[in-house]
């Protein structure tokens, strides 16, 4: 699997301190139907953007700290971080093309 | 861009819920070249946590059931594209052109199966705060409100379901119900009464969603209680709007006949008034909105579309479902 598993514990190092690449975070949970539709799309994004961007998922139930810190109040929420800051956020299932084009804007 | 593999199809299905996916299973198995265009997989059913009334399946999560529907249709060749359809045109050559934001395809037959959409309150602040505290999916978002104060707007089964689910997670649940009583299953009403975390305000009208602290998230819901002189502000971290569903059919006005609730009018065989355009599931005039009914209607529409195609190509209906073929 190309996606990184983000957590409250590794978020600082993996996302906020990532210097070179934009980082895509898919906030999701097991009990969320629409998140299950988003999951495979994120997988495809990870494949297509391999080497150019870091793509990963954060399960909000196990990692409530980060979800709260970034005010994630609906899932799925997709966020792109650059230089430690969120630069793009979208709520609800997002299409692959939209995510990739937003990621490319941050390259 | 999300584009389909081919430029024309036998059967283009708009919507990927129970009706659309079941229709695709039937059409693909009859070797109709089938494309589903949908914004999501599974529609409303996918956001239903526990399904216990789908025959033959004692218990299943809605998302899993719908994922199974999709896999089964894809197994027989259905193609699935995530997009939203914004226009359907009837061409001179009796074909249809389906337009989305990123592509157009031709179709011999079309199935409208895009279901119902969540009804919005239509009050100031609501649209701006979607995803920032305003939610239409309690099963999706409830767990994000652990230990928080939440508000549910509505007075039917889905509002009660949402309130009871939230009561397990949030600290306090205020239900704002426009009517003087709940309307729904008595089992749910009893559970509501027994739940100490739930407070219901009856006869209360929702007026405005506020972000008083300017933090880009919901802080209050302003309501008008029956008989009260002034409006009241309820401090809340989240507002779950559960006031039912509506047909989002403005884009097909003029294409097919709709009833006064904008449901698509169909006959017993899922035909609309336009030959070649079929409709199935919650978006139609069929009274009962249930997964098993939508699935059945989708299958029916698919068989009818198949028959239409055979007749169009000059062949007699190649199959019959019962009785003896002469």
Tell me what the structure shows.
Chain A has a single domain, classed as Glutaredoxin. Chain A is 36% helix and 26% strand. Chain A has 4 helices and 5 strands; from the N terminus they run βαβαβαββα. Chain A has a 5-stranded mixed β-sheet with strand order 1-3-2-4-5. The longest helix of chain A is centred in the middle third of the chain and has 16 residues, at 33-48. Chain B has 326 residues and is an alpha/beta fold. Chain B has 2 domains: 8-116 and 247-312, 3-Layer(bba) Sandwich (FAD/NAD(P)-binding domain); 127-241, FAD/NAD(P)-binding domain. Chain B is 22% helix and 26% strand. Chain B has helices at residues 18-29, 62-75, 138-141, 157-167, 186-194, 291-312; strands at residues 8-14, 34-38, 50-51, 60-61, 79-82, 85-90, 96-100, 104-112, 117-118, 134-135, 149-153, 172-177, 198-202, 204-210, 220-225, 232-235, 238-241, 245-246, 277-279. In chain B, β7 (96-100) and β8 (104-112) form a beta hairpin. The chains are: A alpha/beta (107), B alpha/beta (326).
Q: What are the key terms here?
A:
heterodimer; A: about 110 residues; alpha/beta; Glutaredoxin; 4 helices; about 35% helix; B: FAD/NAD(P)-binding domain; five-stranded parallel β-sheet
Question: Could you give the topology of this structure?
Answer:
The complex is a heterodimer of chains A (107) and B (326).
Chain A: E1 4-6, H1 11-16, E2 23-28, H2 33-48, E3 54-59, H3 64-69, E4 77-82, E5 85-91, H4 96-105
Parallel strand pairs in A: 1-3, 2-3
Antiparallel strand pairs in A: 2-4, 4-5
Chain B: E1 8-14, H1 18-29, E2 34-38, E3 50-51, E4 60-61, H2 62-75, E5 79-82, E6 85-90, E7 96-100, E8 104-112, E9 117-118, E10 134-135, H3 138-141, E11 149-153, H4 157-167, E12 172-177, H5 186-194, E13 198-202, E14 204-210, E15 220-225, E16 232-235, E17 238-241, E18 245-246, E19 277-279, H6 291-312
Parallel strand pairs in B: 1-2, 1-8, 2-5, 8-19, 10-17, 11-12, 11-17, 12-13
Antiparallel strand pairs in B: 3-4, 6-7, 7-8, 9-18, 14-15, 15-16
Helix pairs in contact in B: 1-2, 1-6, 4-5
């Amino acid at each position: 699997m190309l996606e990184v598993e983000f957590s409250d514990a590794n978020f600082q190092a993996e996302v906020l301190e990532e210097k070179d690449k934009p980082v895509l975070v898919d906030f999701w949970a097991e009990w969320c139907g629409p998140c299950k539709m988003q999951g495979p799309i994120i997988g495809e994004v990870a494949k297509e953007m391999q080497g150019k961007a870091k793509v990963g998922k954060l399960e909000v139930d196990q990692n409530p700290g980060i979800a709260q810190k970034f005010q994630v109040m609906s899932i799925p929420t997709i966020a792109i971080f650059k230089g430690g800051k969120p630069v793009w956020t979208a709520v609800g299932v997002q299409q692959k093309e939209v995510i990739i084009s937003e990621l490319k804007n941050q390259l | 861009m999300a584009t389909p593999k081919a430029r024309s199809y036998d059967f283009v299905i708009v919507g990927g819920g129970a009706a659309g996916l079941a229709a695709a299973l039937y059409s693909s198995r009859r070797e109709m070249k089938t494309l589903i265009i949908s914004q999501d997989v599974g529609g409303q059913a996918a956001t239903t946590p526990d399904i216990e009334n789908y025959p033959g399946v004692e218990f299943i999560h809605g998302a899993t059931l719908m994922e199974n529907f999709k896999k089964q249709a894809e197994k027989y060749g259905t193609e699935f594209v995530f997009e939203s359809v914004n226009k359907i045109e009837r061409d001179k050559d009796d074909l249809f052109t389906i337009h989305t934001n990123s592509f157009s395809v031709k179709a011999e037959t079309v199935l409208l199966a895009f279901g119902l959409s969540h009804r919005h309150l239509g009050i100031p602040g609501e649209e701006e705060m979607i995803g920032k505290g305003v939610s239409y999916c309690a099963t999706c978002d409830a767990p994000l409100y652990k230990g928080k104060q939440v508000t549910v707007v509505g007075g039917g089964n889905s509002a009660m379901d949402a309130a009871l689910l939230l009561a397990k997670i949030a600290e306090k649940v205020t239900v704002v119900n426009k009517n003087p009583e709940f309307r729904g299953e008595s089992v749910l009403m009893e559970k509501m009464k027994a739940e100490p975390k739930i407070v219901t305000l009856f006869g209360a009208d929702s007026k405005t969603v506020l972000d008083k602290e300017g933090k880009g998230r919901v802080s209050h819901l302003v309501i008008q209680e029956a008989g009260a002189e002034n409006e009241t502000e309820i401090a809340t971290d989240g507002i779950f709007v559960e006031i039912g569903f509506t047909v989002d059919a403005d884009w097909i006005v003029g294409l097919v006949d709709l009833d006064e609730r904008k449901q698509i009018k169909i006959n017993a065989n899922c035909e609309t008034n336009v030959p070649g355009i079929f409709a199935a599931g919650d978006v139609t005039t069929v009274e009962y909105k249930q997964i098993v009914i939508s699935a059945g209607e989708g299958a029916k529409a698919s068989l009818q579309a198949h028959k239409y195609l055979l007749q169009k190509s000059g062949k007699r209906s190649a199959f019959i479902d019962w009785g003896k073929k002469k």
